[in-house]
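Researcher: Quick test of sequence recovery. Tokens follow.
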């Protein structure tokens, strides 16, 4: 065998396959709740008004496409840092622009791997399916902790805390900052406080994945848990994405932030991140960051972005409330946050819904609440309840 003969065929990405299946379904009543992007009530994933205007401005003011450097757009990173951590945040927090939240998670995992072989990362179950491949490729050993109980639709907080008590000083804990994917079950304020206390007492390092800030309860409340654990910890990492809250998914726009123990240490860590970036993407794609910076620097565009984000968040909450009101068995959906929720369906029941009703969702029972329109919520609820009987 030469080179490519040695490779094994890979399973197709099931969610991407699902999108294709849904598109090919001719039934006008079909419902696609598989895809993981925001949709408006017409089923579109719109370009936000402020983003469109900022793109026009960029087209006018940009005079060069020359290289920008491995850090990316530092002003963009600074503006996002203020949204994540608040103005006047800890000066030992530094960040660099990354290709989306994926790039941030990957470079964060690489930094952990580079720091030392015995550091482990504790990962809640279930979690976003790309977490393990991103972290595993970097070579950081993973320890699972139980996060969510499918039977009760609640966070199994006792089990989570019990697992985390097995973490050693310097171990990393992966946490979803808000809008947990795939469950929608977010830690409440008391639970965040308990984790912050544990992190501080044991010298653990939070690694917060903040991919949906603004789509749960709003920009500020969605950052509260992240701020709490980062403040409590001596050192921390935050993988941030603008891809959902600016609706610029394909522009691959995010940041990795780290909190170090001292300015000197922050500088060393930052230097390592720059070195790692050079070995992967050299420098991040500019367009999304430039657009987000223009939006954030212009008070009118910023206000309009905020208004549209607030509308998106309100739509998510409205569909959740409608589902919760449809039946007591769906009531838990009303108390969750973000676009995703899990239905207590078996893979066979999920396939059954596809065949009988043209409802497309992941085999795990995860569905995107804004895949539903005001017209399809009741139909969806009725079909799901029938399948659950
Ligand atoms: N973290 C979570 C929990 C996500 O759901 C996603 C995207 N689906 C990401 C990170 C990565 O986001 P991005 O598209 O910005 O890479």
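Model:
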């Amino acid at each position: 065998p030469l080179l490519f003969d040695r490779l094994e065929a890979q399973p197709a990405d099931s969610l991407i396959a699902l999108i294709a299946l849904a598109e090919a379904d001719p039934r006008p009543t079909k419902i696609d709740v598989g895809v993981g992007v925001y949709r408006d009530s017409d089923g579109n994933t719109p370009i936000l008004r402020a983003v469109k205007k900022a793109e026009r401005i960029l087209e006018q003011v940009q005079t060069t496409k020359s290289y920008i450097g491995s850090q990316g757009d530092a002003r963009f990173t600074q503006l996002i840092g203020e949204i994540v951590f608040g103005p006047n945040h800890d000066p030992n927090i530094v960040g660099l622009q990354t290709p989306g939240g994926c790039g941030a998670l990957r470079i964060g995992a690489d930094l952990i791997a580079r720091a030392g072989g015995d550091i482990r990362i504790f990962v809640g179950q279930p979690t976003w399916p790309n977490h393990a491949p991103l972290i595993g490729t970097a070579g950081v050993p993973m320890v699972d902790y139980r996060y969510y109980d499918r039977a009760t639709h609640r966070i199994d907080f006792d089990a989570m805390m019990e697992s985390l008590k097995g973490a050693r000083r310097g171990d990393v804990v992966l946490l979803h900052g808000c809008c947990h994917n795939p469950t929608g079950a977010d830690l409440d304020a008391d639970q965040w406080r308990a984790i912050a206390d544990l992190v501080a007492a044991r010298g653990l390092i939070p690694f917060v994945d903040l991919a949906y800030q603004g789509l749960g309860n709003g920009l500020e409340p969605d950052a509260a848990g992240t701020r709490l654990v980062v403040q409590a910890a001596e050192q921390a990492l935050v993988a941030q994405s603008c891809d959902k809250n600016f609706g610029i998914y394909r522009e691959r726009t995010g940041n990795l932030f780290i909190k170090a123990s001292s300015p000197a240490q922050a500088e060393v860590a930052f230097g390592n991140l720059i070195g790692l970036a050079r070995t992967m993407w050299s420098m991040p794609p500019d367009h999304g960051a430039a657009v987000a910076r223009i939006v954030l620097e212009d008070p009118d565009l910023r206000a309009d972005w905020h208004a549209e984000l607030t509308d998106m968040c309100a739509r998510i909450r409205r569909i959740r409330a409608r589902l919760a009101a449809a039946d007591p068995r769906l009531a838990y959906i009303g108390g969750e946050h973000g676009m995703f929720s899990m239905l207590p369906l078996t893979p066979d029941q999920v396939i059954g819904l596809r065949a009988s009703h043209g409802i497309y969702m992941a085999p795990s029972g995860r569905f995107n609440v804004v895949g539903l329109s005001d017209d399809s919520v009741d139909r969806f609820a009725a079909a799901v309840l029938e399948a659950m009987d």
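The chain has a mean pLDDT of 96.
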